[in-house]
Predict the 3D structure of the following.
Amino acid sequence: MKAKIVYFSHGGGPLPLLGDPSHRAMIRFMKQLGNVLPRPKSIVVVSAHWEEEKPTLIASPTPPLLYDYYGFPKEAYEITYPALGNPDLAKSIATLLGDAVLSETRGFDHGMFIPLSLMYPEASIPTIQLSLLSSLSAADHWNLGEKLRPLLDEDILFIGSGFSFHNIRQFWKGDDEQNNAFQNFLIDTCSTDKPIESRKQALIHWENAPYARYCHPREEHLLPLLVCQSLAQGTAELIFDDKILERRAVAFLWS
C-alpha cells in the first residue's frame, strides 16, 4: 500500500485531551481521520516541537512520553500513550538521509501523542519521530522531504504535526483578515493544480506570503508542511478548514 501523508494543526499543548471547547472541531476531525485513513503498518511524525542540528530519529523500541508543556493541571502530566517505536524503520530512514542521528533516549513529544491519542487511541501502531533542523531553513526542510521520497511505496503514514497559524499572542482573539490571507495562501499553494516547482518556490519563500510573519513569528510550526509537500510533490486535499483556539487553521492530505 502506498504511503499517505498528512499535515495538520495539533492544537494547544494537552488542551485537546482536557476537554477544551476551542478544540471541538479539531477533536472531531482527528477522530474521524483515524477512521478514514487506511491503517498503516508504521507512522513517522515530523513534529514542530523537536529541533536538532542534524536530522534525528527516535530509535528506542519503547520511547517514553515527553511532557513538553507547562502550567497545566496535573492530569496533563498523567496522559499515557504506550506506542511502540520502530528501530528498524528509524535505521532505514537514517541510512536514507545519510547524515542522520539515532536517539535511544528521546521521548515522544506532544506533537505526536496528543493527535495520535485521538486518531489511534489504542496506541498499537509502531511510531517514530523525525526532528526538524535547527537551521529552520525552508530549503533545508524541502530537501529533507525529497530525501524521504524512496519511502513512498511503503505502508507508512507520514504526519507533519504543526499549526498553520502559530502566533501565541494572537490566539483567542478571534479570526482576522491577516490570518485568512495566509491560510488562503497555503490552500492555493498546496491544494490547487500547479507545477511542483511553483509549490516549491512558494513554500521556500513563504515569508513573502501575505502576513506570513504575523502568522508565524517563528517558523517551526510551518516547517513540517514543507517536509510533507516536498515528500508528496503532488496536489493535496484540503481536509480541515476550521477554528482551533479561535483561529482558522487548515490540514492537508496527500494520497
Q: What stands out?
A: The first helix runs from residue 24 to 36. The longest strand covers residues 42-52. Helices lie at 24-36, 87-97, 110-119, 138-147, 177-191, 196-204, 212-215, 223-232. The beta strands are 4-9, 42-52, 56-58, 101-103, 127-133, 156-162, 237-244, 247-254.
